[in-house]
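FORM 7B: Structural annotation worksheet

SECTION A. Query
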Amino acid sequence: MLTFFLIPDTERFLQLVNKSCGEVMLHMPDGSKRNLKRNSDAHQMLEIVKSRGSGVEISLSNHRDVKPFIQYMAEAAL
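SECTION B. Predicted structure
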């Protein structure tokens, strides 16, 4: 599981989600998980979770997707 405390560019984040090899599961406040990949409500779901203020948690089903998300985290911190 990865936790993002800063997502300055939601559109770029969702592009990364859609380019991922596997599923990208968003952990919702009620404990459920929603697949962000190619989901028409992904932007809205992401904004709901971001508004909590406790970070956005995602799980990746394919280990090859970890590096691009870690790179996004590093770039967002600059």
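SECTION C. Observations
The mean pLDDT is 89. The longest strand covers residues 56-60.

SECTION D. Sign-off
Analyst initials: ____
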